[in-house]
């Protein structure tokens, strides 16, 4: 990297450790557990940005600065569409990092990330942007622009991704070591575009239909690999192993096509799935829900 070592050192005080505690009855506990550690980054003197699944359903979130000072999240606002969460703290004296320009995030851009590895420990990694491209995942999640980088996160999820000026350009969501030594980050543009909604609790957000299942690409089609207990899919009778043929009569063969078809609907509307289950073709109608309401 051509960046001075002083720049990573300068952002370290803004990188915090998060410890979330979730009630055992919350529906996210079965997959994510009732205690979660993660990283966050200060974007205002009293606000921290992180990955939403780290604080999903949290009753309390403790925020620990590198110097040992602590704060608590007085309010947490989640955006399930982007996968980001904004924490409003009970103190307002933290050092915020500058926010980068999304237009400058292009393949080849040198980057670094800083991650919490303990209460006082922070570690960094360097790399470059591989791509800024569409990304889909099996938990009913899709971004039009996700940042793929070669900087491998040495610590916890939620780590901030910076350009060489020390400006925040993304929040680390996933490590994709199984498909190559890559790290996926949610671009800061998703926060900037919805900043007013975050401030207001996302009350003005468009509501997407949520089915509550885990579809995966399989042999040129889409396979249901699981359903969320108590979610709309389970209630309607979708089962693990179902092969999805169409949505509302429209053939779908990719996650992007599937989500595009589902998200034409809103919560409370019916989504029709044509399925192949063993040797039978079935039509299952799912009354979609709102993921935010289900996981609140």
CATH topology of the largest domain: Thrombin, subunit H
Largest sheet: 6 strands, antiparallel, barrel
Please state the structural category: mainly beta
**What is the overall pLDDT average?**
93
Using only C-alpha atoms, the radius of gyration works out to 20 Å
H and E string: HEHEEEEEEEEEEEHHEEHEEHEEH
What is the name of the CATH architecture of the largest domain?
Beta Barrel
Approximate helicity band: 10-25%
Question: How many domains, as an integer?
Answer: 3
Strand content: 35-45%
Low-confidence stretches: none
Q: Can you identify the CATH superfamily of the largest domain? A: Trypsin-like serine proteases
Q: Distance N terminus to C terminus?
A: 42 Å
CATH class of the largest domain: Mainly Beta
Give an overview of the whole structure.
- It is a single chain.
- The chain folds into three domains: 6-89, Thrombin, subunit H, CATH 2.40.10; 102-190, Trypsin-like serine proteases (Thrombin, subunit H); 213-294, Pdz3 Domain (Roll), CATH 2.30.42.
- The chain is mainly β and 296 residues long.
- Strand 11 (168-175) and strand 12 form a beta hairpin.
- The protein has helices spanning 6-11, 29-32, 189-193, 195-199, 232-236, 255-262, 291-294; strands spanning 15-21, 35-44, 47-51, 60-64, 70-79, 84-89, 110-116, 122-137, 141-149, 160-162, 168-175, 183-187, 213-218, 221-227, 243-247, 250-251, 270-277, 280-287.
- It is 12% helix and 43% strand.
């Amino acid at each position: 990297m051509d960046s001075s070592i002083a720049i990573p050192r300068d952002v370290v005080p803004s990188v915090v450790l998060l410890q979330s505690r979730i009630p055992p009855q919350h529906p996210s506990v079965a997959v994510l557990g009732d205690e979660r550690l993660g990283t966050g980054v200060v974007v205002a003197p009293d606000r921290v940005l992180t990955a939403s699944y780290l604080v999903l359903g949290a009753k309390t979130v403790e925020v620990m600065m590198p110097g040992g000072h602590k704060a608590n999240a007085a309010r947490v606002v989640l955006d399930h569409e982007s996968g980001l969460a904004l924490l409003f703290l009970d103190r307002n004296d933290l050092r915020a990092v500058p926010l980068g320009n999304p237009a400058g995030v292009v393949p080849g851009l040198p980057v670094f990330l800083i991650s919490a590895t303990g209460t006082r420990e922070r570690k960094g990694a360097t790399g470059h942007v591989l791509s800024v491209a569409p990304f889909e995942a099996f938990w009913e999640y899709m971004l039009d622009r996700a940042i793929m980088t070669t900087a491998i996160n040495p610590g916890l999820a939620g780590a901030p991704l910076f350009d060489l000026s020390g400006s925040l350009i993304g929040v680390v969501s996933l490590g994709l070591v199984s498909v190559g030594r890559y790290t996926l980050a949610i671009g800061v543009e998703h926060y900037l575009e919805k900043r007013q909604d975050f401030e207001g609790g996302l009350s003005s957000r468009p509501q997407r239909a949520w089915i509550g299942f885990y579809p995966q690409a399989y042999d040129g089609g889409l396979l249901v690999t699981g359903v969320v207990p108590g979610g709309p899919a389970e209630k309607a009778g979708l089962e693990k192993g179902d092969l999805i043929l169409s949505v509302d009569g429209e053939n779908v063969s990719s996650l992007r096509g599937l989500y595009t078809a589902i998200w034409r609907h809103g919560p409370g509307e019916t989504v029709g799935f044509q399925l192949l289950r063993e040797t039978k073709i079935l039509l299952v109608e799912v009354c979609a829900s709102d993921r935010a309401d289900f996981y609140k």
